[in-house]
Amino acid sequence: RDGSTAKLCGNGLRCAIDYLKTDEIGSILVDGIFYDYVNEDEITVTLIRKNEVRFFFDSIEYSGMIFDFVLVDMIVPHVVLIDLQGTEEDLVREIRKKEKYKKASINFYLKGKINTYEHGVGLTSSCGTGSAAVGFVLDKDIHIENDYGKMDVLINDYVQLRSKVKLIFKGVYYVWYSDSGSEWTSRKNVP
Asked: In the predicted model, what is the mean pLDDT of residues 97-120?
């Protein structure tokens, strides 16, 4: 909503690899990140080596209470709060008042459910890198289910996302160069 550009989208990576994959089971290496398709439906994205994840612990006082959290750099910055109920939106606003968290997505994990307030978007239905950040903080594999499907976060020597990819939308985007000047023109065509 704010027009900013994210460094990475974990769910988008899985979709792009699904689009690029061949008929053979194997791996693709793009920009230093491995993508595996272990069967015809399931994509595994290896985001980062576990020992290379940067993180630190912090807390904030709000409404007379102290809330502990972890900032995790999962290529995209994520604040992770565990087992917290209520006042999510108010707490998101309070955390983002600190300069160092203005561009971080805020993740609340409770009983197998993750609510992610993405930077520039707000509450989102599914965030792959946010789920990966939660799995990293918990230091274990986790299974996530939401309105769009199921996803596993695998924590081993690497932090990985694994799930099926399902096409839910298809569009065409035309780009051409204008002969009359030196500018690019584009037009969306959504069937």
From this structure: 89
Average of per-residue pLDDT across 153-178: 80
β-strands 105-110, 76-82 pairing: parallel
Question: How many angstroms separate the CA atoms of 57 and 70, rounded?
Answer: 5
In this predicted model, what pLDDT tens digit does every residue of 21-45 receive, in sequence order?
Answer: 655 555 655 555 565 655 667 888 8
121-159 exposure pattern, b = at least 16 Cβ within 10 A, e = fewer:
eeeeebbbbbbbbbbbbeeeebebebeeeebbbbbeebb
- Other Cβ atoms within 10 Å of 78 Cβ, number: 28
C-alpha R_g of the chain: 19
Contacts of 157 (CB under 8 A, 6+ apart): 49, 50, 51
Q: How far apart are CA 34 and CA 156, in angstroms?
A: 15
- The number of residues making up the chain comes to 191
Tokens 């699904």 belong to which residue? 18
Number of neighbours of residue 14 by Cβ within 10 angstroms: 23
CA-based end-to-end distance of the chain: 23
pTM beyond 0.70: the answer is yes
Q: Rounded to whole angstroms, how far apart are CA atoms 149 and 123?
A: 17
